[in-house]
Amino acid sequence: MTEAEQLNHVLRAAWPAAARCLSPLGRRAAFPRGIPFQSEQARGTTINASIGQVTDGHGGPMPPDALRASAPGLDDAQAFLYSPMAGHAPLRHAWRARQTAMASLDDGAPMSLPVVTHGLTQGVSIAATLFADPNTDVFVPSLRWENYDLVFDHIGAEVQPYPFYRDGALDVGGIADVLARGTRPKAFLVLNFPSNPSGYTPTIREVEQLTEVLLAHPRPLVVLVDDAYQGMVWEPGLMARSMYWELARSADPARLLPLKADGATKELLFFPGRVGFVSHPLRGAAEAAMTSKIMCIGRATVGSPPGPSQAMTLSALRSPHLGDEIAARHALLADRYRALRDALADVRSDRLRPLPFNSGCFALVELPPEIPAEAVRQRLLTESVGVVAMPGTNAIRLAHCSVDAASIPELVAKIELVVQGF
Predict the structure, then answer these.
(1) 323-420 CATH choice from 3.30.70.20, 3.40.630.10, 3.90.1150.10, 3.40.50.700
(2) Taking 90 as the threshold, does the pLDDT of residue 29 lie above it?
(3) Helix axes 172-180, 204-215, angle to 10 degrees
(4) String of DSSP letters for 113-133
(5) In whole angstroms, what separates CA 76 from the centre of its chain?
(6) What is the pLDDT of residue 138?
(7) What CATH number does the domain located at 3-38+81-318 have?
(8) Euclidean distance between CA atoms 26 and 132, whole angstroms
(9) 407 pLDDT exceeds 90?
(10) What are the residues facing 173 on neighbouring strands?
(11) Residue 157 to residue 394: CA distance in whole angstroms
(12) Please, are residues 195 and 232 in contact by the beta-carbon 8 Å criterion?
């Protein structure tokens, strides 16, 4: 039995849905016992000739002083030596502690030690590679981050959109209908709340209804919860924590595997850091098996995650001031959200139809079919206004997170003026 087959056997015994949903590549995946594996085993030895990185001869980094000077206060070893493939252990533990605290759960909640990825994008890509293929029904929101299409197309899996809104709320019934119409042996569903591009988070009741639908799905199902914008909830009555927790606590291991992708990018406002994480509910030997497969795909694509940004993220997580600093920035973002909400509520033109939004960084404004979103975007550029056109829904996306609250009424007024000109 190969090592990959041994890992599959462990998964079948502990979480059958995980084994049943593996793609052909996912079934073959096992972290190789090559240079990274052997050098990790040699970490801390007195004489370490295992890995090809320049050190001081005693295991310490030896970067040029000009480079070291750019990272004062960081741990030299974390910043200037290769990271373990799964990421630095102190960061992984600190991130799990943050996630469980944000969910108001203790560290015994159903969550593995997260594996560090090169940004959330790589986390999504690894999950797709392990569990999606042409024999998988892949369901993504009709209003979605465009990179989902690229990720699944890259592995030859066809995405099927599920309806997002109905009567100003999340279309839970439409999602259930689309899932029920799936014809392939297994399914992969992507959830993203707060949503990019819609800026919508479901209410607590909507989350309860959707959770019931997913827990009752009869075929093997992987649910990837994309938590890029978690914590950015601006209205009462919404589900403030990740849907991952509702699924992980109640999932039948024979039918449902929830995965969680998140990162420091938006959560810590560390946009160029490229520090993401993938987590799941498996523990013990099954957790080790899943981690091996995740590391295998990571090794085959990007390699080990970046050290300096991991060190910076860990330093931030250890700061006693981080919570207050994030809260202050969230208060600023909430002000911008309210400014856009109020400005759009005052729009008199029936040519502009704001879609429901209540959280995150974005809002969508739908246009009539006869006014192309791309044409509106181009005209707005001549007014020194930048927006994103969403041709599939003929809407423009407004990133209120990046606009000063005082400028938002002017933004909306210019959009209204341009649309009136068509």
Answers:
(1) 3.90.1150.10
(2) yes
(3) 10
(4) PPEEEEHHHHHHHHHHHHH--
(5) 29
(6) 98
(7) 3.40.640.10
(8) 9
(9) yes
(10) none
(11) 25
(12) no
Task: Return the domain boundaries, the chain.
Answer: 3-38+81-318, 323-420
Residues in contact with 5: Cβ distance below 8 Å, sequence separation at least 6, in sequence order: none
The helix or strand, by DSSP H or E, that contains position 223, with its residue range, turns out to be strand 221-226
pLDDT at 109: 84
> Taking the complete model, does pTM exceed 0.85, yes or no?
yes
Structure confidence at residue 340 (pLDDT): 98
pLDDT in tens, 302-329: 989 999 999 999 999 999 999 999 999 9
Q: Work out the pLDDT band at 23, boundaries 50, 70, 90.
A: very high
Q: Which two tokens stand for residue 58?
A: 């005693």
Helix axes 284-301, 3-14, angle to 10 degrees: 130
Tokens 């649309």 belong to residue: 419
Contacts of 236 (CB under 8 A, 6+ apart): none
- Residue 125 CA, distance from chain mean position: 10
Distance linking the first and last C-alpha atoms of the chain? 67
Ordered DSSP codes for 260-320: EEEEHHHHTT-TTS-EEEEE-S--HHHHHHHHHHHHHHHHHHT-SPPHHHHHHHHHHHH-T
